[in-house]
Amino acid sequence: MSKHAFLIIAHSNEKNLINLIKSIDFYDNYIYIHLDKKWKNVDYNRIIKAAKFSKINIFSQINVVWGGSSQVFVEMLLFEKAFQEGEYDYYHLLSGQDICIKQQSELHRFFDENRCKEFISFCKDDWQKKEQNRVKYYYMQSGRSRFKIFFNRAFVFAQKILRIDRRKNSRLTFVGGSNWVSVTGDFCKYLLQKKDYIFKVFGRSFCADELFVQTMAYNSPFKQNLFIPCQSGLKSYGEEYACLANMRKIDWNRGSPYTFVEDDYEEVISSPYIFVRKVDEKSGLPDKILKYLGK
């Protein structure tokens, strides 16, 4: 049976995190969790005890700030920690607000049947054109405060006047999509070999966590291994098609993204996805999913 590493970025809500752990707990599954450095008074023992079969590795090294390079750093740190500990067939990057909705036997079977495929989603062309500014200019602040937003806008405006374009000396085609991915051990190794280059190119960018994995895959031999749902017998779900490639159910039509609640149970369970982002533990949805999974 293949070995899987689940890499979780968590910043709050211990209950949600525990539900996610329970949903992926299985022999030959290894769980790596980064807890945001800002998250205090976390019960490590309670989190570890949530898994009956999986080995859990928890660490807290980075103060993750929305929009900043720290998002790239924490993802690369998780890839590195897991890769150093074992040779895994797949590395699944997850949020602490996600949950798995498939039996682990089904998850393992699916990835065994699609061995060597990279499960990375790409947004449509109009999004790609609009978001080029994320890496075209330098950003000196990260976060959602009004001051930081104003500062970055002013800084970018000055760069436009000076005709700054960080991409002009690069041979990369910059593309993006959801940062939540499932990638092979070979591609994980490739990313780690390019770590310094990734930090150089995507450091001081804006929300580059939604760009760097896609860009590195698209500009490498791994491009030919990208999972394409329509070639794998899976039904396209209209606007959700772009998200289907990473096997995550994400709804951008009802939210940013939408948080699934108990009333969405049938929709969630009947979907072809393996993971769901995001869920509300107060709604009762995770409890129903865990019961469905026999957890």
Q: What coarse outline follows from CA principal-axis ratios?
A: globular
Kindly report the oligomeric state of this protein: single chain
Structural class: alpha/beta
Helix content: 25-40%
Residue stretches low in confidence (pLDDT < 50, at least 5 long) are 231-240
Instruction: Describe the largest sheet.
Output: 5 strands, mixed
**What is the overall pLDDT average?**
91
Major β-sheet strand ordering = 3-2-1-4-6
How many angstroms does the end-to-end distance come to? Answer: 21 Å
The run of helices and strands is EHEHEHEEHHHHEHHHHEHEH
Strand content: 5-15%
Continuous helix count: 13
Radius of gyration over alpha carbons? Answer: 19 Å
The count of DSSP E runs of length 2 or more, i.e. the number of strands, is 8
How are the SSEs ordered, and which strands pair?
Elements: E1 4-10, H1 14-24, E2 29-35, H2 44-48, E3 55-59, H3 70-85, E4 90-95, E5 99-100, H4 104-113, H5 125-130, H6 133-136, H7 146-161, E6 182-184, H8 185-193, H9 195-202, H10 212-218, H11 241-244, E7 248-249, H12 265-269, E8 275-276, H13 285-293
Parallel strand pairs: 1-2, 1-4, 2-3, 7-8
Antiparallel strand pairs: 4-6, 5-8
Can you offer a commentary on this structure?
With 295 residues, this protein is of the alpha/beta class. It has 13 helices and 8 strands. The strands form 2 sheets. The chain has a 5-stranded mixed β-sheet with strand order 3-2-1-4-6, sandwiched between helices. A 3-stranded mixed β-sheet has the order 5-8-7. Helix 1 (14-24) packs parallel to helix 13 (285-293) and helix 3 packs across helix 8 (185-193). The relative contact order is 0.16.
